[in-house]
Protein 1
Amino acid sequence: MDIINFSQKLKWIPPCAMRALERQLKRIPAVRRLINREYDVMLAELDGDLKPYAAEFPAHIRLPAEGVPRDDILAQMETMQQREAALWRDGFVSGAVYHGDSAHIEFLNRAYALNSQSNPLHADIFPSTTKFEAEIVAMTARMLGAAQVGGDDGICGTVSSGGTESILLAMKTYRDWARETKGIRRPEMIVPRTAHAAFEKAARYFGIKRVQIPVDEHFRADVRAAKKAITRNTIVMVGSAPSFPHGTIDPITELSELARQRGIGFHTDACLGGFVLPFANRLGYPVPPFDFRLPGVTSMSADTHKYGYAAKGTSVVMYRGAALRRYQYYTTGEWSGGLYFSPTFAGSRPGALSAACWAALVSIGEAGYLDAARRILETAAVIKAGIVEIPELRILGNPLWVIAFASDALNIYQVMEQMTRRGWRLNGLHKPSAVHIAITLRHTQPGVAERFLSDLRDSVAYVKENPQDEGTMAPVYGLAATLPMRGLVDDLLKRYIDILYRV
Ligand SMILES: Cc1ncc(COP(=O)(O)O)c(C=O)c1O
């Protein structure tokens, strides 16, 4: 890793000078060749892991001359599905599959199958999907503190394809709103360091400057820093309920009030917590205000495809007032294809996913979500208590059910690697180095919490005794944390995506 060692020796160079140096170095063909060779070596190791079916099933690199029999196709899919489900079904995975009971999956699949031809772009042909989507928004808004739903001043929204799309849509909405109503041409958004990457993605896509603010020792956004960060160009401020990395809830009362006083938007990202926090609150857990009950909260995102227990591919983005939502829409009367409009980024959309989402919400109901939240929070309490008893580990912040832990004594990524070898799939975090597990209904099955803690204790003991056994992921995470040439990490990640699309 010559080029990487070289880069690490340059840590003393300030970041902007480093970016310029990196650009210059990459223009030299010999350096480019060297970097490419090193990337190839690092990624070659991952190739096998990412393509486990290469030797087992035929690869289709062009359309088969004659169609493959349906039964053969389904048999292949069943083999793959069974192998992959073994990982998440028994509760070895952080987040990812949030419900997963077979009766629930079969029910959603039936709802999907009944609606598989539906496309809400054609509201005249599929009014059932329009009904489902309007009701998904209404049910979610009511759950999240909307006193009034619909109308000019009530809470309204749209269904999107996931948390990222909901966030992108909200940020684009604020950009267009601020341009039209305030003449802001150089928009800025204030985002806590722990907010989801989707906000940075929105900043890049829509030409919004992202102003990052720090978090305190409990991993909650720093309100004083937020106040100082407001400028004439600020269009929106963001808070998470809770954040993906540490599961902590930002001080949304204070932040949203600040935004309200200054006439800027405030977005609560409840993608992860929208379908848990209202019920945690009812169960008596300490949940600070975070939703539309706060007058300064002007938009929210809540993911039905996470703890709403819908199939993957739906989320809800909501706004205070119909006027704000209209900045999200795309409409044109100029196209030769006719009068055209779409509420979200996509044109045609899978109405079947909205139908299955509606079916999930209506079939589970308040009682079902309350019971699910109770089981998840009780399991999380067992896991938190177990981690606290491992002297080498400490929990970050005061999480309810997304539990991040770090170590001052050991390399936490080596602990994660050991957990992987014991069958677990946890999330590696960054800055500070940590690992998290997002508790889902899969973990509430009998014995799962105990198995997690027993494996965690064994992993910590192993790393203590074998610090030289780095494994494969620990060095990659370590590298990403320490490499001053940030572009090298981005390049590496782009090449990783390339591999995903290689046949
Ligand atoms: C707090 C938060 N916001 C946004 C997202 C993005 O959601 P998605 O992966 O559905 O795009 C996530 C995903 O985990 C999240 O935890």
Protein 2
Amino acid sequence: MFNHKSVDIAVLGAGPVGLTAAHTLADEGMDFVLLDREKRANIHSYALALHPETLELLDTLGIIDPILKNAHRIRRSTIFDNTQKQRAVIDYGELPVKYPFLAVIGQNELEDILVKTLADKGHHPLWRHRARCIEPNPDHVAFTVDRLTEGMTGYAVAHMETEIDKIFEYKANYLIAADGYNSMARRAAGIIYPEIARSMDYAIFEFETNARLLTEMRMIVETNKTHIYWPLGDGRCRFSFQMKPGFAKHSSFNKDHELMDHKAQHAPELSNMHLDHLLEKHAPWFVGSSSDVKWRAMVHFEKHLADQFGKDRIWLAGDAAHMAPPAGILSMNVGMHEAADLAKRLCTDDSDDVRQFRLHAYNADRMGEWQRLLDMNHHVIGHDATAAWLLEHRENVIGNIPASGESLAAVLKQLHLTEAA
Ligand SMILES: Cc1cc2nc3c(=O)[nH]c(=O)nc-3n(C[C@H](O)[C@H](O)[C@H](O)COP(=O)(O)OP(=O)(O)OC[C@H]3O[C@@H](n4cnc5c(N)ncnc54)[C@H](O)[C@@H]3O)c2cc1C
């Protein structure tokens, strides 16, 4: 029943971050395996926008065309207060980048494209392969992988149950942990994942409408809350309303792999009536139909940052290392860069010492980047009225800005903010 496997690099998790690592390793001709316990990619839009720098990354991976073909481009983000007064604007068209816009594309569509284009490179995620018992050793990482199947069971009422069909014992030189916020690999490495700020509960609605939709992403900031509007193209939009603490269950961040969430369909807090009430209260500028809701969810977003990005032979990228507030789509976008960077650092014919040296630099770079993105040292400053208002609402704004990488400084400048040296 047992099967022994050896591989240079194991990538755990075929979300957007693990898939990006796999693309990079495939391009470099490395020996790797990509494992995921689910049976397919996501089926919901979750994190739905790509930053200009992420588009450049996808360009270097040779997969920009299908992304742009399926994405809706937006050139502006705005920040409003709760009296509906515009407080700040980000104009992506002004940035000195190859792709001066946000590409709005459902995470499900993005993952589908990443899977299909990976297949063109001759690689496939091993779906229904669940890792467990991850054990770091001085010269390798050992772990068990269950290959899962679904079997029909039950007498009076038949239902599907997950069964283990085969067990593999893996040995890898390195493990890229892209296994999401509840990362088993992170725990096996003994890395701490503290909560660094208050969690936020959201009611999310995606619907088709006859309204003339704004062509910008908009944040509506009020004391202790940030509501978010995204145009999705084709007469669709998403509103995410921040609710009182306790609104959503902690488990709501688990990815739902069924098309229809029956509980959400019938939750009064997610009813069409409640949506209309929220629109009237927080987005009175929205005028149009809202009854054709395609997806509704209550989500509990936490804010975490790992105390290090890896140890010895287990290295983290994406949600396994951080969780940020939803408007900025930081965790996924920055996570995809981390995955590509991490994979590249492992692509070398040099000795293990050289790899270890490069990996330690990865840790330092990533910690520095996240301290900057979340402004953990309060380096962001500004002196005029726009800056003063944004800094007064720093908790709602920082980490929610849809920008990363080289563009961040220019975007902060557009917001009348700057980073102190
Ligand atoms: C309802 C919801 C709404 C969201 N909305 C937003 C939003 O508006 N803005 C935003 O920025 N973010 C949002 N997110 C978060 C966003 O989806 C994540 O930031 C993104 O998915 C992170 O990508 P990742 O590849 O790091 O992790 P994931 O996408 O979580 O991928 C991890 C993968 O690892 C696999 N895995 C885990 N453990 C194992 C194991 N032991 N063995 C094998 N495979 C394993 C999982 O099956 C999964 O496919 C939302 C998430 C949810 C659930």
